[in-house]
Design a protein that fits this description.
Length: 204
């Protein structure tokens, strides 16, 4: 059984690797299942045992990315970092999102070639939305939220996604730190205790 599981995992990993390699040089809509299988040296029959189509394969890759972020975030939770330093954890999550885009810039640009922005937005939102919202929720342990945490999270995640869209579509060569600082400045303006939170002591 372990050998079978290992073989399945290896086949899936090869298909994902092949797909990502093809996406570096080809638009998403121009890649066929046959090309993926040829690049991975795996039969089409094996492909369809695991995935319905290339969209499902892409979704599996997105889930892998989300697991990477989830692992990091749960390490923050286990070490109490998220509770003790939610601001620092938020910055780290934003940096992870931007790093993922930097690592996969060619792939994301080619996804843009034949897709509207909704696919990129879905990829990024799926990857970090839940964790950013949790960090915002942790602020409510120290202060009362003036606005729902879901709206504050939407501003942060949405703002980061729009920055990435601008960066990719216009081929701007902005340094990573500038993007991180800009998102954190947005949060400082809209999400600091002074702007968006009501101090619990002042309410008493």
């Amino acid at each position: 059984m372990e050998q079978v599981d290992a073989r399945i995992s290896k086949s899936k990993a090869e298909l994902k690797k092949a797909f990502l390699k093809l996406l570096k040089d080809n638009a998403f809509d121009r890649i066929s299942v046959m090309q993926i299988c040829k690049e991975a040296n795996i039969t089409r029959g094996t492909f369809y045992k695991y995935y319905e189509d290339k969209y499902e394969l892409l979704y599996a890759i997105i889930l892998d990315t989300r697991k990477r972020i989830s692992t990091t975030y749960h390490e923050m939770i286990d070490s109490n970092r998220a509770e003790n330093d939610p601001d620092g954890c938020l910055k780290e999550l934003i940096e992870m999102m931007i790093d993922l885009c930097l690592e996969n810039k060619d792939i994301l640009i080619n996804l843009y070639a034949d897709q509207d922005n909704s696919m990129i937005e879905y990829i990024l939102k799926t990857a970090v939305d839940k964790f950013v919202k949790h960090v915002i929720d942790l602020y409510s342990l120290k202060a009362n939220l003036k606005y729902p945490s879901s709206l504050v999270s939407a501003i942060i995640v949405g703002g980061t996604i729009n920055l990435v869209n601008e960066w990719l579509t216009n081929e701007n060569d902005y340094p990573k730190q500038m993007l991180i600082d800009l998102v954190m400045d947005i949060f400082s303006t809209v999400g600091t205790k002074e702007a968006i939170f009501v101090d619990k002591e002042q309410m008493n």
